[in-house]
Write a structure and sequence with these properties.
Elements: H1 2-16, H2 21-36, E1 40-44, H3 48-63, E2 73-76, H4 81-90, H5 96-104, E3 110-114, H6 121-133, E4 136-142, E5 154-158, H7 163-189
Parallel strand pairs: 1-2, 1-3, 3-4, 4-5
């Protein structure tokens, strides 16, 4: 058991370091620009990726506060069980996120999609809808990126075929981003950030 646990951790760490951190920095720059312009960030996923989207929303809203200045205006589209099941029941599961984006989003906003396969129909429909609306699309995927890649303005693929590892990496990517964004967010807010604070 210990050997298997150690091997998983070592493999995940090694694969994580093969990430395209330049692409992650581009995503960070996009988010900082969205914050400066007062844009809204929408997040979505299914299953474990829905949990990631919810967690990241918390990081954007609370973790990205600078002094008394609010964090991002961010909403997880999968957080309301009542709303998601209503839309799935009355329309279709494939349309849940696209309907929510049409309801809430405006041109210039940002949508972040988390998908291990990159082929979930509701994610693909939502990304296509977002592009039609002038909403910037960002994908966090894995494996070969799936069909989602073609619908994203920026996409970061976790370098693994393992669903467990790619979900781990998606959270690491965002915790990394939150720490890296703090100086820029502090500058926007006109406050000082503690040296080394993360």
């Amino acid at each position: 058991m210990k050997q298997a646990l150690t091997a998983y951790a070592a493999d995940t760490g090694a694969r994580l370091m093969r990430t395209d951190f330049g692409k992650l920095a581009e995503i960070g720059g996009l988010l900082l620009k969205a914050k400066a312009e007062g844009r809204t960030v929408f997040l979505m996923g299914n299953g474990g990726s829905a949990a990631t989207a919810s967690h990241v929303t918390n990081d954007l809203v609370k973790g990205c506060r600078a002094g008394d200045t609010p964090g991002f205006r961010a909403f997880c589209l999968s957080d309301s069980n009542a709303l998601v099941t209503c839309l799935a029941n009355d329309f279709s599961y494939e349309e849940i996120y696209s309907i929510l984006l049409r309801t809430y989003a405006k041109a210039g906003d940002v949508v972040l999609a988390f998908s291990g396969s990159g082929n979930s129909p509701n994610i693909l429909h939502a990304l296509a809808t977002a592009r039609e609306m002038g909403v910037t699309t960002v994908g966090f995927g894995g494996r070969d990126g799936g069909l989602m890649k073609a619908l994203c303005d920026l996409v970061l693929i976790a370098p693994t075929d393992s669903m467990e590892m790619l979900e781990d990496m998606h959270l690491v990517y965002f915790h990394d981003l939150v720490c890296a964004l703090r100086p820029g967010l502090a500058k926007l807010a006109g406050v000082e950030v503690a040296c080394g604070k993360c």
